[in-house]
C-alpha cells in the first residue's frame, strides 16, 4: 500500500511517500517551501517588476502570502482576486476589498494580460509528480492523506482564533481521541473552507483522508517508541506558525492549548506547558495573549498525579532545547520533520479499515484499539 501524505504548513510542506511493504525509515521524503511561501515569492516578484497581480485558484493558507500582498499594495500596485482566492486573506470579501484588493470574476481575471497571474492552492499534486519523476520514482499511489491548519470560516465580526478553538473543543467533546480529527472528504464540516479547498485540488480517484496538522503531528510523535511506551505524554508541536500541546494517555486527550509560536519565547512556552499539566492554565490567559485557547476534558478518566513525559516535535522545537521541562525530541521513524506525515498515514489506516492492519503493522503501531 503506497500512501502519499502531504502536510501543508506555513514554512514548509512536508511530503512522504509511504510504502507498507518497506521499512518506514526508507520512505521517500520531501521538505519543500509551503504553498503560501511560493505564492509570496511570486507576489514579491511582481512587486519588483511593478506589475499588478491577479490571484486565481482556491482558498489556501495565509500568513506569508498575506504579508507579501500587503507589501505589494503599499507599493501602490494593483491586486485582483477571484472570490475563492480572495478568501485566503479574509472570509469576508468586503474586508478583502477594503484592504485594496479588487474582487473579480473568473472571466474578468483572464482579461488582465499584462498582470502576473498567480494560482492559489495548498496542494499541487502535479508539481509533486514532476519532482518524483525527476528522480525516476513512480508517482502512482493507492491513497492520499492531507493536512493543513484551518481556522474555519468564522461569522463576520467573530474571532477566527476562537472559532478554530471551538472546533477543536467540539471534536474532543464528541469523541475523545486524536484520531477523531481525521475525516473522509464527505465528513469535513462546511466551515472548514481551507480543508475543503485542499481536498478539491485532488485529481485522483484514490481514497483520501484529511487531518488537522496539530493532531497529525501528535499522532506522529506517538510513533516514536520512547514516547509510545509512556503511560502519559505531553506532546508539544512547535510549528512555524502555531504551537499546540496535548496532554495525552495514548490517543486519549486530557487537555490541550494552542497559541502562535512566534509570539512565545521558550520560557513562555514552558510556562504554558507547566500550567496545562498542573491544570492551572486558563483559557483567558492564552486567548488574551493572542493565542487560541485552553480546554480541559471534564468527562471520563482523569490524569494521574504523575508528571507526564514531555515530548516535543515541530520545526521550532529548539525553543525548548534548554527548557526545565527536559523534553524529549521525538523522532518517529528517524525523522522529526515528517511527524505529521506519519500521523497522516495512521489516520488513513483508521478511516480505511480494509488496509488498517497492514499499515499499522508497517508503522509498528500495536495495542491500539480501532478509532
TrEMBL record:
Annotated InterPro entries: DUF1786_pyruvate_format-lyase
Protein name per Swiss-Prot or TrEMBL: Pyruvate formate lyase-activating protein
